[in-house]
Design a protein that fits this description.
The chain is an alpha+beta fold and 370 residues long. The protein has two domains: 22-184, no CATH class; 265-369, no CATH class. 42% of the residues lie in helices and 15% in strands. The protein has helices spanning 5-15, 26-32, 42-49, 57-65, 84-105, 115-125, 132-140, 148-158, 181-184, 192-207, 212-219, 223-231, 289-292, 335-352, 361-369; strands at 36-37, 69-73, 79-83, 130-131, 161-164, 177-180, 237-240, 246-249, 265-267, 302-305, 308-317, 323-329. A hairpin with a 5-residue loop joins β11 (308-317) and β12 (323-329). α5 packs across α10 and α10 crosses α12. The longest helix is centred in the N-terminal third of the chain and has 22 residues, at 84-105. The relative contact order is 0.14.
Length: 370
């Protein structure tokens, strides 16, 4: 069966809870959409706000403190928030590959002990929450002839560390503390093959139908390793895209009609719906890609119209000191679309007002200097 580009767009929007807001909790929603990129503390909250009927940041923070959700470096070596169950599988699959990569690079690292030994020393030190500075300085005490910054950079890619949430409204500050994952989530991890299967299934459930190249882009793993996970899934469904390329999906998952209405939505920075594919045009039209994904690699806050990115949005303060959302469309907006987006903006302004009224503003200013 061949799927049109618009059918694939609607499939993504449906699975990403962007066709219709869901009445569910933050943990279930995070699992449904395959996690959220989390360089900016606000982004996961805005990602959930735009997808849920009712979103309470305090409930989200509680799930982090209760260890139902976890923030850590995962796919593409970037910070994500995922469920505890998804973290265990993801870190198992990712470390199996990244450890082999780092071991190859050890040839150029003049250390006297192996990376496993050095990683174990850091993990033991991180049995309680530590700042990045503490972890870097500890690496400098391990007696190796390597700069502390460089050694810690290697170790943190080899070991499993997670971020410890604080009490601030966005859960994490800009100077995070980390702890060994085994101290935060002591339950055993799955084996590597089961973890690969879980990782592939997570992507297909959240973003499918997909090519193996898409799963590789999203996860940062090789197509070869991902095929091992794909082969373990019973009853995989196959399709073709409009260029005849093979797509994979889990059995029993619906495909919305290509004419399904897609209401306007405000997306956070680094929204996964724009990043989970080898080619970004599933939701982000190619003519606009460089206006959303800028030179520094930042993915700016955007909005959709009819299911496709159609512009950027920014938060700024009014004369009374309250936030408002301003739209920066790439093309003129129809009156009905502008009205819907402005209503979304008013709702979002109420969410950020007590937390980060000028959220993402530094990226707006940086972009203007580029």
């Amino acid at each position: 069966m061949r799927l049109t580009a618009r059918q694939l767009n609607r499939a993504t929007l449906g699975r990403q809870l962007l066709l219709e807001r869901a009445n569910t909790d933050p943990v279930a929603a995070t699992e449904a959409i395959g996690g959220m990129q989390a360089q900016e503390p606000a982004s996961p909250c805005i990602a959930l706000w735009t997808r849920l009927d009712s979103f309470d940041p305090d409930t989200f923070n509680s799930a982090l403190r209760e260890r139902e959700l976890v923030k850590a470096t995962l796919g593409r070596s970037t910070l994500h928030i995922v469920s505890a169950a998804d973290y265990r599988a993801s870190i198992t699959a990712l470390l199996a590959v990244t450890r082999a990569r780092w071991m190859q690079e050890k040839r150029g690292l003049p250390v006297t002990r192996s990376l496993p030994e050095l990683s174990e020393a850091s993990l033991a030190f991180a049995s309680e929450p530590r700042s990045n500075v503490e972890l870097r300085d500890h690496a400098g005490t391990l007696g190796e002839p390597v700069e502390a910054d460089e050694l810690w950079r290697r170790i943190r890619r080899y070991g499993a560390f997670v971020h410890v949430p604080g009490d601030d409204p966005w859960a994490f500050g800009r100077r995070p503390r980390q702890i060994a994952a085994r101290a935060w989530l002591p339950q055993p991890d799955p084996d590597e093959e089961a973890a690969l299967e879980h990782l592939v299934s997570t992507h297909l459930r959240a973003f499918g139908p997909s090519r193996t190249a898409d799963i590789a882009q999203w996860s940062g793993l090789t197509v070869r390793s991902l095929r091992r996970g794909l082969e373990r899934i019973s009853g995989v469904v196959t399709y073709e895209d409009d260029r005849g390329r093979e797509l994979f999906d889990l059995p029993g998952l619906p495909l919305p009609d290509e004419d399904a209405p897609a209401p306007p939505r405000l997306l956070p920075m680094w929204d996964e719906s724009l990043l989970a594919y080898a080619e970004r045009d599933r939701v982000l039209p190619e003519p606009y890609r460089k206006r959303v994904i800028v030179k520094a690699g930042d993915v700016l806050p955007s909005f959709t119209v009819d299911g496709y990115v159609a512009g950027l949005w920014w938060a700024e303060l009014t004369g009374g000191g309250r936030p408002r959302i301003v739209l920066e469309p790439f093309e003129p907006l129809a009156p009905a679309d502008r009205a819907a987006l402005e209503a979304e903006g008013q709702a979002l302004a109420a969410v950020i007002a007590q937390r980060e009224p000028e959220v993402y503003s530094r990226y707006r200013h940086t972009r203007r200097r580029d």
